[in-house]
């Protein structure tokens, strides 16, 4: 999240813990990242939706990493196939 806001992790931590005031612009960016409205971000009865949004965002991030790993492994397999083919 800090990276998506263009902030150091420590600065985002201070915002998250309420030690630093959150600007409207950053709050809007956070809501967009989670795919929820700005109003929903501040709605006290919406904790479940925010947790779900965090889970979805984390899952998307993990999925992107896995896709990158698959692409790397695919390239290695193609290289290995070429080596085996040359040996035959």
- Please state the overall shape, judged from the principal axes of the Cα atoms: elongated
Portion of residues in beta strands equals: under 5%
Order of helices and strands: HHHHH
User: What is the count of β-strands?
Assistant: 0
What oligomeric state do these chains adopt? single chain
What do the pLDDT scores average to?
82
Structural class: mainly alpha
List low-pLDDT spans: none
Q: Gap between N and C termini, in Å? A: 50 Å
Describe this structure in words.
It is built from 5 helices and no strands. With 88 residues, it is mainly alpha-helical. The chain has one domain. It is elongated and about 65 Å long.
Quick structural gist:
The protein is mainly alpha-helical.
Could you name the key traits of this structure?
88 residues, mainly alpha, 5 helices, 78% helix
Itemize the secondary structure elements and their pairings:
Elements: H1 2-5, H2 9-16, H3 24-34, H4 38-42, H5 47-87
């Amino acid at each position: 999240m800090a990276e998506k806001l263009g902030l150091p992790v420590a600065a985002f931590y201070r915002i998250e813990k309420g030690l630093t005031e959150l600007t409207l612009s950053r709050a809007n960016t956070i809501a967009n990242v989670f795919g929820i409205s700005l109003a929903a971000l501040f709605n006290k009865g919406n904790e479940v939706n925010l947790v779900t949004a965090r889970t979805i965002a984390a899952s998307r991030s993990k999925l992107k990493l896995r896709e990158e790993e698959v692409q790397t492994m695919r390239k290695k397999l193609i290289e290995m196939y070429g080596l085996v083919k040359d040996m035959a």
